[in-house]
Amino acid sequence: MVVFDRKSEPHDPGLIRKLKKTALSIRRDVLTMTTRAGSGHPGGSLSCADLLAALYFHHLRYDPENPGWEDRDRFILSKGHACPALYSALSMAGFFSREALRDLRKCGSILQGHPDMNTTPGIEASTGSLGQGLSIGCGMALAARLDRREYRVYVLMGDGEMNEGQVWEAAMAGAHYEVDNLLAIVDRNMIQLDGPTEKILRLEPLNEKWKAFGWHVMEIDGHDMLQILEALDAAEKIKHKPTVIIAHTVKGKGVSFMENQVKYHGKALTEDELQKALEELDRGGEGERQE
Amino acid sequence: MKDRSKGFNLETRQEALMREAYGRTLAELGEKDSSIVVLDADLSTSTKTSVFAERFPERFFNVGVAEANLMGIAAGLASAGKIPFVSTFSVFGTEKGLSQFKQSIAYPKLNVKIVVTHGGLTVGEDGASHFCLWDIAIMRALPNTTVVVPADAIETEMAIMAVAKHQGPTFVRLTRPKTPLVYEEGYRYSGHQLKFEIGKSVTLEDGGDATIIATGPLVAEALVAASNLKMENLDVGVINMHTVKPLDERTVLKAAVETNALVTAEDHSVIGGLGGAVTEVLAENRPTPLRRIGVRDEYGESGPWRKLYERYGLTSQHIEKAVREVLKMKR
Description:
The complex is a heterodimer of chains A (291) and B (331).
Chain A: H1 13-37, H2 42-47, H3 49-59, E1 74-77, H4 83-93, H5 133-146, E2 153-158, H6 165-176, E3 182-188, E4 191-192, E5 195-196, H7 197-200, H8 206-212, E6 216-221, H9 225-236, E7 243-248, H10 271-290
Parallel strand pairs in A: 1-2, 2-3, 3-7, 6-7
Antiparallel strand pairs in A: 4-5
Chain B: E1 15-16, H1 18-32, E2 36-40, H2 44-47, H3 50-55, E3 60-62, H4 67-79, E4 83-89, H5 90-96, H6 98-106, E5 113-117, H7 135-141, E6 146-148, H8 153-165, E7 170-173, E8 179-180, E9 188-189, E10 192-193, E11 202-205, E12 210-214, H9 218-230, E13 236-240, E14 243-245, H10 249-259, E15 262-269, H11 274-285, E16 290-295, H12 305-311, H13 316-330
Parallel strand pairs in B: 2-3, 2-4, 4-5, 5-7, 6-7, 12-13, 12-15, 15-16
Antiparallel strand pairs in B: 1-8, 6-14, 9-10, 11-13
């Protein structure tokens, strides 16, 4: 047993620095992997990199050597297309080798185009067809209650994904069953495949929608590491209702020419673009270190 | 002259509700195994999961009229080691929860049992909006999925017990009304004790001239047909194909070799169900004269289910006619 359990570590500047650096590594991996694969979804993978760094390298409890450990926290990537970011986090966490990242989306790879719980160690649910993760998370949370286990369930959804009716079915159920061991996070990057979320199908007022469905709602800057950590902790104190964190993010975060660009939702960078992007990420990383 | 009183006769047969057998069996299983959980989408008093719900309220989840979420919650429970039985009407479970069943359950091979009631035309008066005459075809097309269609209430009990032990995504299809009992108490037929095994058909009647392969409530109709044809000196076998997937191919091919004249019979579209499954096996291995009894690519309409069986060609008389036709083809 090599349980990762660091939730209680103080949120000091050292931790924040470390997690920001990890998020940067996730971003580098995302871009490198998708360019190598020649396809994938870099935009929404970059927007959730900070959230994943906070979850996998501070907040969640898990054992990479025993991915099926019964008391582990469960994380479901409902916006399955952002899996390059999750694969990066899982490989750094030790669920599988760094080399595996090279084979994203290739035949025979353990890293499928969308998450596959039977192929990739550490993946908790097979997702990709949007809207399904919150229901699964709700089921896991109910199972934890039946078994009187302490683990918590985390579901990361996209904002475009909020268009799916099933999300709201699950939202009703989560509140009805009062699953306070379930935390939903919305990666609110404001852009979906075809364009701005408010132009495609208006989501606002999103906060009030979740509230009306009976959830405790928090809104944070999804790139502010301290805010993320504080929100994850605060959510655990909310009882008798599930919590949703609306994390305001930037699609393509970290690479100036990708930020807020619809076209990088589902398009990998060319080799030249990748070099430019990695250089920029490096510069940003240096900036972080000087803080 | 036909003496219908001696053979398999629907008028003298006892009838029972598959749904009741299901609810009762589920509650018994719940007593023995605390990992069994049950989910329903606001139809529990109809699907009879209410019997389980009363006994084990903490292990019963009524998710409301929300079939997508129904499947997803079941997937989550299964991935945490529970054995979820999920019930609703076939039309809702199959059609409204399909994407979720595929993506969240069948693809990752989660141990979820979908037990739908109100299969086929037996829905009756509610009409076309409530029919799902393609559930077997759809579910059978999904990899990792086992499809079981019991013939009566007694076999339903056997099937549910077997399905509870079976590992993996499973779809079980039951009917709405009381249907004639094919079996005698304790899963016997003509005095013989039988054993229910998923994937293994039950040969109810041997026959040298032709073989009827039937599933669900059409097994009883097939037995009536065979019994009537016997009076015309036609020796017709009846196989109950209670598992449509995996199909008992060996028995299908054996019947093809032995009688060289087959009729499939199901309360389902002729496209893609039992008829489809049997013809696929035969076409690739041993082309054999065959007729399919089933609904011929229609949505159906309201009416008492027996009347609908007459109107859409699902009665014993239709099966008898098909057997005569297939015997002509063989010559």
